[in-house]
Amino acid sequence: MARVTVEDCIEKVPNRYELLMVAAQRAKDIEQGSPLRVDRDNDKNSVVALREIAEDKVSIEDLQKSLVLNLQKYVEVEEPQEEEIEIIAAEKELADLDAQFDASMLLDTDIDDNMQIRDETTDSLDGLDDVDLSDDSFDDDSFDETAENDSFSDENEEF
After folding, report:
1. What is the pTM of this model?
2. In the list 67, 78, 87, 145, which could disulfide-bond 25, CB 3.0-4.6 Å?
3. How far is 21 from 23, CA to CA, in rounded Å?
């Protein structure tokens, strides 16, 4: 019975060595509790595995991948290249700067309230806003006397 099964499997997997390896992997899977896809008919796991392969009940590609993974002793971990490391570091720096900027950012209303806008045409007039013009310390009479004293001193200088 197994001889006929092998002949049927050669159509699916042309290389006998590869067929042997794939069937052995499927037999191991069945031994570990993988569900059967054909009736057992009192056959051993290796014969059941060959019958499943012959009837296309299992994926040959999946069995090949599983076989390779089981035989590997060293699983190569893909490490990022130098450029990728630099890009990741730059992205982290930008994220940190964004976080700092968001934390210290003032609202536009706060900026407008605290900001003084000066216009060149009104700078000279800004000082007058603080002066109280109703102050009586400047009397018209005292202003006139000062003006007369100034004219008197000018006359004395001529002599």
Report:
1. 0.46
2. 67
3. 6
